[in-house]
Amino acid sequence: MSPIDQLFRLEGKVALVTGGYGGIGEAICRGIASVGAKVAIAGHNGERAAACAQSLSADGYDAWPIAFQATSVADTQRMVDQTTSHFGHLDILVNCVGLNREEKAEEVTEEMFDYVYSVNLKSAMFQAQAAAIHMIKQGNGGKQIHLGSVRSMLALRGRGYAAYCAAKGGLITLCKQLSAEWAPNKINVNVVAPTFIRTEQVGRMLADPAFSSQLINRIPLGRIGEPDDVMSTVLFLASPASNFITGQTLYLDGGLTATQ
After folding, report:
1. Which of 58, 60, 195, 198 is the Cys-Cys partner for 253 at CB 3.0 to 4.6 Å?
2. Which residues is 16 bridged to in the sheet?
3. 209: three-class secondary structure by DSSP
4. Which residues have a Cβ under 8 Å from the Cβ of 31 and sit 6 or more positions away?
5. Where are the beta strands (DSSP E) in the chain?
6. Quick one: residue 97, left, alpha or beta (phi over 0 = left, psi -120 to 50 = alpha)?
7. 164 is catalytic
8. Coil, helix or strand for 161?
9. Can you give the C-alpha Rg of the chain in angstroms?
10. What is the pLDDT of residues 228-256, one digit of tens each?
11. Catalytic residue among 21, 61, 161, 164
12. Rounded to two decimals, what is the model's pTM?
């Protein structure tokens, strides 16, 4: 294998992908496995995690499922500990956990705000912490990639996104701080921040012709993002090719944030 090829391979690495069985998460799991890594697929739905792992295993990849509750710090720690114990080490964390519950700003409830914050921001902190503890102990560095959103930079008219925008904005600053604190341990922490990606969940919004047309017209490259667009970006940030990149947010948006 040439030195250039080695920059983009992950042989011998173990990756934990949380939210790894969704439209974006599964594409990331398959991409990471295809370049040589072993993959742990985690999420709250154990059956879906197992089905995704079985699909990857059937294609010859080393995949293992585990269920956890992202809003529980203790359960997050358990999940990361068990993943590390199962594979023997942990090199890469890809955090795909996230959701939104729309409420107009004047109608936002404390309960829903706390829930959106806990899933999108608090869970990221404690996933990162649990993974970093093992990475620091191992002494070989590591890669952490968190999925953010263009909503960390841009508001969305006509939608109740206050809690979601606040949480995703906080995620970017959190990851800058984590990258600074863990740089001496050679742990890279970065954010991939997509615009709308064509998944089952987003598909319901894109089914509205007016919304879909308006969105595409705002994106200079003239199309909706696909799960493989996110996957390829995550692969770069997980690979040795990105070893000198940390504390950064890569907006995966077809030029949207460059023109708004």
Report:
1. 195
2. 40, 93
3. helix
4. 228, 231, 232, 234, 235
5. 14-18, 38-43, 63-67, 92-95, 142-147, 187-194, 249-252
6. beta
7. yes
8. strand
9. 18
10. 999 999 999 999 999 999 999 999 999 99
11. 164
12. 0.96
